[in-house]
Each structure stands twice: as C-alpha cells, then as structure tokens.
Amino acid sequence: MRCFSVKKLKENGGEKVGKRIAEFVRRETVLSVAAVLAAVSCFFVTPDEEYLGYIDFRTLILLFCLMAVMAGFKQMGVFRILSAGLLQRVKSGRGLTLCLVFLCFFGSMIITNDVSLVTFVPFGLLALEMAGMEKQICAAVTFMTIGANLGSMLTPIGNPQNLYLYGRSGVSAVSFMALMLPYAALSALLLAGAVFLTFRRETVSCQVERPAAPPKQRLILYLALFAVCILTVSGVLPEGVLLVIVLAAVLADRKELLAGVDYGLLLTFAAFFVFIGNMGRLPQFCAFLESVLTGNERIAAVAASQVISNVPAALLLSGFTDEWRELIIGTNLGGLGTLIASMASLISYKQIAVRHPEKKGSYLAVFTLWNAVFLAVLLAASFLME
C-alpha cells in the first residue's frame, strides 16, 4: 500500500513538472527553441574560454536598462496620460483610429514596439468599445500593431533587432535613421491610406478617463535615466556606467519595477549568441549559409523572420554576413507577414483573445491579409528605391 502511494505520488509529481515545462514552452516558445539550439550546438563545439566572447554584453545591458526605464514610465501612467489627452479631442471613428494607430507608430520609435503595444492596445480597446466601434476592433488593432512594428524601424532603439544591428554595424545613429526614413515615411502614408479606406467619418464620443499626473520628482528621474540610455546608445557613455546608474536609481525608487523587465528576451539573445558563436566555428556550416545569403540577404532576412521572427533572424544571419544595410531593412520589413514575424504582434493577439475571444479567428484573418499587403508593397518599394 505504501509503495503504491509513493509510486502514485511520484507520478503526480511528474505530471505537474511536465505541465509546468509545457506551460513554459508555450509561454516562451522562442526562448525554448533558442535554448535547445544552443545546447545542441555545444555538442559540436566543446565549451571553452571562447564562449565568453560570444555574448554581446553591450546589447544585453542596453536592452535591460531601456526595459527597466520603460517599466517606470508605464507604472506612472505617463503613456496613458498622453494618449487620453489626445483621444479627448477626437470626434470621428476614423479620427479615433488614426489617433490610436499613430500613437503606436510614433510611440514605438522611442519606447519600442513591445512597450507601445502593451501600453496602447488595452487602452485602444477600451476607447473603441466606449465609442461603439466593436465591429471595427479587428481592423483597428491590426493597424495599431502594424503601426508599432513599422514605426519602430526608424530608430536604433525602436526594437531589439535594431539595437543589436546598430551596435554590430558601427553606423552612426544619423546614418541608421537616414537609411530607414524613406520606409518609415512610406509606411505612415500607407497606414493613413488604409485607415481612410477602412473607416468612415461617423461621429463618435470617446471620453476616456485621464489618470492622475505622476509625481514630478519621479518623472524627472526617469526622464534623466532615459537620457542616460540615449547617451549610451550614442556611444557617449560606457554601458557599465549606465547599468550602475539605472540599477541604483530603480532599486532606490521601486525595486519591483525590475519585474517588468522581459528576462525571457534577454535569455533568448544570450542563447542565440551561443548558437551563432558555435556555428561560426564550423567551417562547413559557415560556407553553406554564406553561399545562401550572398546577394540574397534582404529576402533571406524577410523569409527567416516569417518562421522564427525578426529578432532571432537578425541574430542568426548577422553571424554570417557583413551586409548590415540589407539585414536592417530585411528584418524590419520581415516583422510584417505572419503572426510570429514580429513577436510584438503576439501582444495584440493575446489582448484580443482575452477581451474578445469570439473575434480571434476574424482578427487573425484581417491581420494576415493586411500584413501581406503591407509587406508586398514595402518590399517591392525597397527594391525600387535602389
């Protein structure tokens, strides 16, 4: 009897562990894949002192600090205050949608596409519901998501792959933005045109409650921290100094803000660094991938992004080509297309699934259609611009 109880206890324990692992893999799919790839690559290249050289600590520190600072702004409600002020001036359904879309578009240039969608999509859903625009929610959120992904491509800090490729390429911030400016400008025109075609000028009332203003001292603190982040991205300050300043300030202010950092993303980067580093030491693999990439970097980046998303695509392909211009364009345009082409797009999908589960299928269809249209137009334009 006792043996039976112990056996059953072990089986139950095994089931719980299995469920936890399955839940983790479902929640952190990209991290799980990256970890498996890194682990498998270690069988081909025995761990040694060169492993430490794989990790781009500068990129990891910049990502960590930016996410910590954005968590502070979000906790204070800064983004909701700004967006509420804008929405109170809106008089039509078309105007409301344009406002929401370009909040994501311009906001993502500074606060990243992930933070933009985490902040503005729940707020936008509330505004659309209050305006009686439930039927147009799928289209509106789709354009908000496309707006965040396309707006983020303009700046080096707009998304994780830009931050990484900006650091690896060695180009100046001005040169980076000059490269992506035509695409951002065309994207803005396409977004405005799509909204005008899809939404009418019917009058709506959208009175969104404006949150209380944040304490001035805290606002000044996080503005100063953000300025320090920008100085570090620009190469004025070393990343070690930035890490010390941000950690000290956040711990002194509210240490729970550190829970708002996406550690899964940081670990994903680290795992891909190990995988890419190991693969780079295998001559046959290098020769194969370089032969595939040569002359096809942009298309390869777009195609890879559709399957593994654009951040891992940037990390993977950067180890085998020096065509930074092509990778920057390809991985940014590659954020369009499938739902996982940009992992930030999953944020919007999850919000729809929670608040309007009956619209999941419709949203996925609308999202895929419009993403395909934007990707086709922008990719064609990218070759015509040459």
UniProtKB/TrEMBL annotation:
- Indicate the transmembrane segments per the record: 29-46, 52-73, 93-111, 117-133, 140-158, 178-199, 220-251, 257-278, 299-321, 327-349, 361-385
GO CC annotations? membrane
Q: Has the keyword Thylakoid been applied to this entry?
A: no
Task: Enumerate the spans annotated as Citrate transporter-like domain.
Answer: 29-317
> Per the annotation, which location comes first and is thus the protein's main one?
membrane
Official protein name in the record: Citrate transporter
Against InterPro entries, the record matches this protein to:
Cit_transptr-like_dom (IPR004680), Diverse_Ion_Transporter (IPR051475)
